C-alpha cells in the first residue's frame, strides 16, 4: 500500500509530461526547415504564454464566446484549432484559426500572431476560410493580460479576419541598460569616496592606532573645512574692498593743536 502511494505522484508526473510533450505547437507557413528565422525567434518569445487559456465574449448579449491559446490546441475545437468561436446556448463550435497555419510579425511594442485555415464562411467573404489575428501589445505589469475581441471584418469579398487584442509583457522591448556619462561619473565618484573613507578608517585604526573620531581619515582637515569654506566665501563674495579707511574717524589729542596766542601789545599807548 505504501509502495503504491509512493509511486503515484511519479506516475502522475510522467503522464502529465507525456501529455504536454504530445501537444501540437505552431507550424509556421512554409516548408519544414525553411521557416523565417525572425518568425521562429518571435514564437520563442511567446512561449511563456503557451500554458494559458484566454476567453472573451462578444456579439449581442454576449452571444459568442471565443477561446484562444498561444501555439496550442484549444480544448473544445481540436484538430489544430488555436482560436474557436462557440455560440451561446448551442454546442456549435466554429474554428476561427488553426495553429498549423501560423504567421507572426512584430513592431516596437507589439507582436501580431495570425492563425489561418479556419472553418469556411457560409455566404460571406466568398466562402473563404476564416482567419484570426491576435495583436499582442506591451504591458510590462503583467504576463497574462486581458484578452478582448476587437472586430470582425467580413464585409469584403476576400481577406476577411477576426481581430483580437491581448496585453502581455512578452511584447515589450528589453529595457535599455546603458548608463549615461553623468551616471558613470557619479558612480565613479561615489566609489572613490567609499574607498577613501573605508581605507582611511582601516589605516588609522590598524596602523596608526587611532580611536574614536580620530579614526576618520584627515580628521583635522575635515574639522576645519567649515572655517576654510567660510574664509573662501568671504574672500570671493565680499563686495567691500579691504584695507579702506572708514569714512568717519574720531578726533584724537594728536589732532588738536594750540590756537595761536593773539597779542594786542600794539594797541597799548606808547
Class per helix and strand makeup: alpha+beta
How far apart lie the N and C ends? 165 Å
Arithmetic mean of pLDDT? 81
Main β-sheet description: 8 strands, mixed
Strand tally is: 8
The share of residues in helices is: 25-40%
From the spread of the alpha carbons, the general shape counts as: elongated
- Amount of beta strand: 15-25%
Task: Kindly describe this structure.
The structure is a single chain. The protein has an 8-stranded mixed β-sheet, with helices on one face. The longest helix is centred in the last third of the chain and has 28 residues, at 181-208. 28% of the residues lie in helices and 23% in strands. The protein is elongated and about 150 Å long. It is of the alpha+beta class and 270 residues long.
Amino acid at each position: 500500500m505504501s509502495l503504491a502511494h509512493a509511486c503515484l505522484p511519479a506516475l502522475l508526473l510522467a503522464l502529465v509530461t507525456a501529455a504536454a510533450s504530445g501537444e501540437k505547437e505552431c507550424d509556421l507557413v512554409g516548408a519544414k526547415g525553411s521557416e523565417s528565422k525572425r518568425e521562429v525567434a518571435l514564437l520563442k518569445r511567446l512561449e511563456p504564454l503557451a500554458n494559458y487559456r484566454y476567453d472573451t465574449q462578444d456579439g449581442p448579449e454576449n452571444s459568442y464566446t471565443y477561446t484562444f491559446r498561444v501555439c496550442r490546441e484549444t480544448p473544445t475545437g481540436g484538430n489544430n484549432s488555436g482560436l474557436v468561436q462557440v455560440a451561446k446556448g448551442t454546442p456549435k463550435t466554429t474554428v476561427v484559426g488553426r495553429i498549423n497555419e501560423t504567421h507572426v510579425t512584430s513592431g516596437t511594442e507589439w507582436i501580431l500572431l495570425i492563425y489561418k485555415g479556419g472553418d469556411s464562411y457560409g455566404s460571406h467573404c466568398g466562402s473563404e476560410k476564416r482567419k484570426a489575428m491576435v495583436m499582442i501589445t506591451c504591458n510590462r505589469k503583467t504576463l497574462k493580460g486581458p484578452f478582448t475581441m476587437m472586430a470582425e471584418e467580413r464585409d469584403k469579398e476576400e481577406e476577411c479576419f477576426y481581430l483580437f487584442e491581448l496585453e502581455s509583457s512578452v511584447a515589450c522591448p528589453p529595457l535599455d541598460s546603458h548608463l549615461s556619462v553623468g551616471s558613470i561619473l557619479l558612480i565613479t565618484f561615489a566609489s572613490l569616496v567609499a574607498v577613501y573613507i573605508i581605507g582611511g578608517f582601516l589605516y588609522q585604526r590598524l596602523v596608526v592606532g587611532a580611536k574614536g573620531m580620530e579614526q576618520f581619515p584627515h580628521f583635522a582637515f575635515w574639522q576645519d573645512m567649515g572655517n576654510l569654506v567660510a574664509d573662501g566665501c568671504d574672500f570671493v563674495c565680499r563686495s567691500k574692498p579691504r584695507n579702506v579707511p572708514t569714512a568717519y574717524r574720531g578726533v584724537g589729542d594728536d589732532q588738536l593743536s594750540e590756537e595761536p596766542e593773539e597779542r594786542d601789545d600794539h594797541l597799548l599807548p606808547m
